[in-house]
Design goal:
The complex is a heterodimer of chains A (488) and B (249). By secondary structure, chain A is an alpha+beta fold. Chain A contains 16 helices and 16 strands. Chain A has a domain of 112 residues. Chain A has a five-stranded antiparallel beta sheet with strand order 3-2-1-15-16, covered by helices on one side. In chain A, strands 8-7-6-11 form a four-stranded mixed beta sheet. Chain A has a three-stranded antiparallel beta sheet with strand order 12-13-14. In chain A, strand 9 and strand 10 form a beta hairpin. Chain A is globular and about 65 Å long. Chain B is built from six helices and nine strands; from the N terminus they run ββαβββααβαβββαα. The chains are: A alpha+beta (488), B alpha+beta (249). Chains A and B meet through helix 2 of A and loops of B. The structure holds iron/sulfur cluster and FE2/S2 (inorganic) cluster (FES). FE2/S2 (inorganic) cluster binds next to loops of chain B. The site of iron/sulfur cluster has 14 residues of chain B, from helix 4.
């Protein structure tokens, strides 16, 4: 716990600020402010996230059927997650409490395609440079190009895994980005037998490569447990969605949360009631809210979401290879939840394997070629849609008037759920590596590595992978700039 | 009697009284247009159909065909001017194609593609035009109106209702609904009206349809507007009531 570092005391005297901006290789744009005192001791750490505040306003006053397409503009990185969460919420508006099997499976396929491509992108393109070369290694090489030179096979598989996921999305959503496949009440297309055969042909290769990816990260863990188990580690609650039988399901299910020791906090919660469960706290220094379990209060009720939470929250994974890997993960953790920040990568790769296996199973299902695409029922005024997006639980909540226009929209995105957790991770790392030491590029990068482990989508900004210049600014408590460092 | 004129070097027959546009459309030749529709009297307002006849500019939807005319249509010069007109239309309204349900069925978007328009070029006006969702069956999304008055003409001439009108002048021109409240629900408008189907862009929309037809399977996804609209129709998806051939006059 490191709440005491959040706000430096008013009488802190002469403080210096180290700002890392932007956080390179994180999707979008973030800024870390480290407030130092005159002895270079960490006084305060804040992760500022430029988030899509105000987007809910854009949606208000729009016809509801436009929303699943519109919300994809929220995020250039996982538009499919917003597309599906919105569609699920709007299913309820049109009275489709249960969509047709074809619609359900088309959406699932789209979703697992998204998980596959997003996890592959994150692991191979964004994280593998740090993990394979070390956090302190030469910056110029610490990118996917460096990986491609030193480990050409790994880089190639990463690129092809991602491409395959994108192809699944293209065929289910209609387009690779900003598709329109899901509509309130169902989908607008199904797959032909040929399309399924084409995708299925490569599915086995994707499973094999995903297994290799799990092994890469598992080995890194086992080779250097001192680093992997302790880097930015801190205890917290977990939350995620599971199928009603407790198995991992990233598309639909009930909410479950565990505490830091792995005991159930709540289970089998219908997500329509999420607003009774979660409160979003506003802090003056950040645009991004801080959600917590209402019953536990802000100090103890915050939690992690995403791969690390999900893999430890479920009782099983319904595909064989991924379940095998989950059991190894659980065994490694030793019967207690693993809270290590870098274990996110391991859990993420287990999920990628789960996605690859699920895609294969879905493609063998003839329902994917069905013709019953849409359904509807008694009109409702309110609906909540939840999905386990690549980065964690994603909530979409809408109210729609009798004139079909949206009157209220509330979204809680994965990165917001993880807000407190990411801040805490950064503080832990700052304490471990920065406190009282010289500020080197390698040390600063440790902070980035911690943030990156959460795979936050910091804004809709896109950037050249690994090429984003890093700017380090040193300013004092009054905001006077003392020093500035650039890295290309 | 059968006369003819030359359109981009091709001989086009016409019957007396036909406009250049009508004759070209009857011959399956595409002259870019937005405010013209075979079922309605020419309006001559969008200027997209401007051609050069004997070296002089003329709106082909209003000018009569005459024997021996030399008409330039798809020249670089004329298409460049059309591009500019389209860019002006795009910045005057709020056209967000990626989330617009008419995307792929929209004549404005399709014509912009056809003319090779890549950027809006001008500063956006970002007008504030609230939607009218009062009618149970039809939504009015004024943000996309290009003031072609096709709905005005259809409601008046076919439906006999006068539901729509243009109000204001110059850049303040805008579409209004003829009811005391200004709301569509307070008119005698019906979803079966011709005016409900005639809008070339995404203003007059049947509710709850949205993206039921996938992007990629829509009118202008399948063929460019020059091919879809070259047979005497406007190539307008949803406008199923439009007869395929035109009458003189
Ligand atoms: S609503 Fe449509 S048909 Fe009517 S004037 Fe505007 S663009 Fe033309
Ligand atoms: S089509 Fe001739 S002026 Fe519009």
């Amino acid at each position: 716990m490191s709440f005491e570092l959040e706000t430096a005391p008013a009488d802190a005297g002469t403080l210096r600020r180290v700002a890392i901006d932007p956080v390179s290789r994180v999707e979008g744009h973030g800024k870390v402010t480290i407030l130092l005192d005159e002895h270079n001791k960490v006084h305060q750490v804040r992760l500022h996230i430029v988030e899509f505040r105000g987007f809910e306003r854009f949606i208000q006053g729009r016809p509801y059927w436009e929303v699943p397409v519109m919300v994809q503009r929220l995020c250039g990185i996982c538009p499919v997650s917003h597309h599906l969460a919105a569609s699920k919420a709007l299913d309820l508006i049109v009275g489709a409490t249960r969509v047709t099997p074809t619609a359900d499976k088309m959406r699932r396929l789209m979703h697992y395609g998204q998980i596959l491509q997003s996890h592959a992108l994150h692991f191979f393109h964004l994280s593998s440079p740090d993990l394979l070369f070390g956090f302190d290694s030469e910056v110029g090489r610490r990118n996917i190009v460096g990986v491609a030179e030193k480990y050409p096979e790994i880089a190639k598989k990463g690129i092809l895994l991602r491409k395959y996921g994108q192809e699944v999305i293209r065929l289910t959503a209609g387009k690779r980005v900003h598709g329109t496949g899901a509509v309130p009440g169902g989908v607008n297309r199904s797959l032909s037998a040929d399309e399924r055969k084409d995708l299925l042909k490569d599915a086995y290769q994707m499973i094999a490569w995903s297994r290799e990816a799990v092994h890469i990260i598992k080995e890194l863990h086992q080779q250097n447990p001192a680093l992997y188990d302790h880097f930015g580690s801190f205890r917290s609650n977990f939350m995620g969605m599971v199928a009603p039988d407790g198995s991992l399901d990233l598309y639909h299910g009930v909410l479950r949360a565990k505490d830091a020791d792995g005991s159930i906090l709540f289970d089998q919660v219908d997500y329509q009631t999420y607003d009774r469960l979660i409160t979003e706290e506003v802090k003056p220094w950040s645009y991004m809210k801080f959600p917590y379990f209402t019953a536990m209060g802000p100090e103890h009720g915050w939690y992690k979401v995403g791969p690390l939470a999900r893999v430890q929250n479920c009782d099983s994974i319904p595909t064989p290879f991924a379940e095998h890997e989950r059991l190894e993960f659980v065994a490694y953790a030793g019967g207690k939840p693993l809270h290590a920040t870098l274990a996110y990568h391991w859990a993420r790769m287990v999920e990628m394997l789960f996605a690859a296996e699920t895609i294969k199973e879905l493609l063998q299902d003839d329902d994917l070629s069905g013709t019953e695409l849409m359904t509807s029922g008694e009109r409702r005024r309110e609906g909540v849609g939840v999905i386990e997006a690549p980065r964690g639980t994603l909530f979409h909540h809408y109210q729609v008037g009798d004139d079909d226009l949206v009157t209220m929209a509330n979204l809680i995105v994965s990165t917001t759920h993880n807000n407190q957790a990411m801040n805490t991770a950064v503080r832990e790392v700052a304490r471990q590596y920065l406190d009282g030491k010289e500020i080197t590029e390698g040390l600063l990068n440790h902070i980035e590595v911690a943030i990156r482990a959460y795979d936050p989508c910091l804004s809709c900004a896109t950037h050249a992978l690994g090429k984003m210049p890093l700017e380090v600014t040193l300013v004092d408590a009054e905001g006077t700039e003392l020093d500035r460092k650039y890295k290309a | 009697m059968n006369d003819s004129f030359m359109l981009d070097g091709e001989e086009i027959p016409f019957t007396p009284g036909q406009t250049v546009m009508q004759a070209a459309a009857a011959a399956g030749k595409y002259i870019p247009h937005l405010c013209w529709h075979p079922d309605f009297a020419a309006h001559g307002s969008c200027k997209l159909c401007t051609v050069k006849i004997g070296g002089r500019f003329a709106t082909s939807c209003t000018v009569r065909a005459a024997a021996g005319q030399e008409v330039e249509n798809r020249t670089d010069e004329l298409d460049a001017r059309r591009r500019t007109l389209l860019q002006l239309l795009f910045v005057e309204g709020n056209h967000f194609c990626p989330s617009c349900e008419k995307s792929g069925d929209c004549a404005l978007q399709a014509t912009a593609y056809e003319m090779g328009m890549l950027t809006p070029h001008f500063d956006h006006f970002y007008p504030d035009r609230p939607v009218d969702a009062s009618h149970p069956e039809v939504l009015l999304e004024f943000n996309r109106c290009i003031l072609c008055e096709l709905c005005v003409r259809a409601s008046r001439e076919v439906d006999g209702k006068n539901v729509f009108a243009l109000a204001g002048r110059g850049t303040k021109s805008h579409l209004i609904v003829n009811s005391e409240s200004g709301r569509l629900a307070d008119t005698d408008f019906a979803a079966t009206d011709r005016a409900a189907e005639v809008c070339p862009v995404g203003v007059i929309l049947k509710k709850r349809v949205g993206f039921a037809v996938p992007i990629g399977a829509r009118t202008y996804d399948l063929q460019p507007i020059s091919a879809a609209g070259g047979d005497g129709t406007t190539g307008r998806a949803g406008d199923t009531s439009a007869p395929r051939k035109t009458e003189a006059g």
